Amino acid sequence: MPATIIVGAQWGDEGKGKATDLLADSTDLVVRYQGGNNAGHTVIVGDDVFKLHLIPSGILYPHVTPVIADGVVIDPKVLLEELDGLEPKGLEPFDRIKVSGNAHLIMPYHRELDMLIERRLGKAKLGTTKRGIGPAYADKASRVGLRFQDLFDEKIFRQKLDAALDHKNELLSKVYNRLPMDADEIAEEYLGYAQRLAPLHAETSGLIHESLEAGRHIIMEGAQGTLLDLDHGTYPFVTSSNPVAGGALTGAGLGPRHIDRVIGITKAYVTRVGTGPFPTELFDEVGDRMTDVGGEYGTTTGRRRRVGWFDAVLARYANRVNGFTDIFLTKLDVLSEFDTLKVATGYRYEGEVYEHFPPHQSIFHHAEPVYEEVPGWTGDITEVDDYDDLPREARDYVDLLEDLCNAPITWVSVGPKRSQTLVRRDVPLVP
Ligand code: GDP
Ligand code: IMO
Ligand code: MG
Predict the structure, then answer these.
(1) pTM as predicted
(2) Could you report the per-residue pLDDT of 329-344, keeping only the tens digit for each?
(3) Interhelix angle for 312-322 vs 392-405, to 10°?
(4) Is the peptide bond before 236 cis (omega within 30 degrees of 0)?
(5) How far apart are the C-alpha atoms of 87 and 96, rounded to whole Å?
(6) How far is the CA of 74 from the centre of ligand 2 (A)?
(7) What backbone torsions phi and psi does residue 205 show, to the nearest 5 degrees?
(8) How far apart are alpha carbons 53 and 335 in whole angstroms?
(9) What's the start-to-end Cα distance of the chain, in Å?
(10) Hey, whose CA ends up nearest to atom 2 of ligand 1?
């Protein structure tokens, strides 16, 4: 049975949690392949609201095995808090979730450095989530990281911690004028988590392969989004991992021949948290209304999200780097009651029009969007349960986005709940 990748097509918060939860009904494994607790995935089922940071959004179905794969960075305290939060809901997270031993650990000095680096950047800061993500991935690349499996070998944990801390304490005290950190304290805290986390430790790549061989279906759930990708995003205003579809393969330990669907999740407009360029950003009352109606405040940090019109240049680019087989369009309901909707079809810079992502970041930073204007629709669409019953202007808007993105829009979401999803093309996830 093939696997499906769910990937954010924009700057994160596209509704990956909702889409994964909805589609996980017909799957057996849901695998988080990158990122850490910088992610915040909201899943609403009935009256229950779940805000997931590390745990895959498949957790709500008892038949699903949620997997945290090799490419994720884990803050063990946050993981335990999240597990403990789900326990009273009867979801038995400790018995079900599997965590790769190769996933790297976020250490206290990573959180501290994330904060200090941002502070030192001053006006040029990225607006990170301050969860230690960048410094943890930097240590992984520098080969001085500690991994989830190290929690279960006290001697090795201590050796690696001492080696890492030797350098980190020089950095903290001499560059940033901070107090050094104490290895004993960190070891005591982290090894204290080990006993409760040990049952989760698994060889997840093996588990994924066994499942595929046994004919089970797998969803790979991305965090962040294409434009936050370390290699393909709006560098340096990105995260430190690879949310794109290719990242799912390295992050989970899987070859491309197993993938048959790549679903891009995209809002019907655009949002971004943190700093960095955003050509279609709105600074007027139209933007304020989008923020209010869309409830655009971060799931992880509570920060107000920046909002703007749909940007087809970015969508085409996301399609190119991920190879979408489908698009899951979210938050169409938020655009109800606007007289006119705008969609950026290109960028204008120094007399030239760019239909594709510009070759130099300076063009992107200073580009003026070229807009196509289309009529909006009136009336609430959150209760519509058949795609054909949407107002004509809403269907025309979806058709336009599909044409501009060059990828089929299969699902259209008109509210945060599972049930508020319209199927536009009947292509079942599991044949
Ligand atoms: P993720 O990080 O991609 O999982 O997205 P977030 O959960 O951070 O942000 C998406 C927000 O939009 C959440 O609060 C969802 O409950 C909400 N949401 C998802 N789909 C829809 C939709 O179609 N309409 C509305 N109004 N809200 C939605
Ligand atoms: P989900 O999975 C939106 C942004 C931060 C910042 C940049 C780098 O919920 O879509 P980091 O802490 O990763 O080093 O911050 O990336 N960012 C997100 N924005 N949604 C997310 O996750 C994000 N995770 C990180 O705001 O601009
Ligand atoms: Mg989010």
Answers:
(1) 0.97
(2) 999 999 998 999 999 9
(3) 50
(4) yes
(5) 11
(6) 15
(7) -60, -40
(8) 27
(9) 9
(10) 13
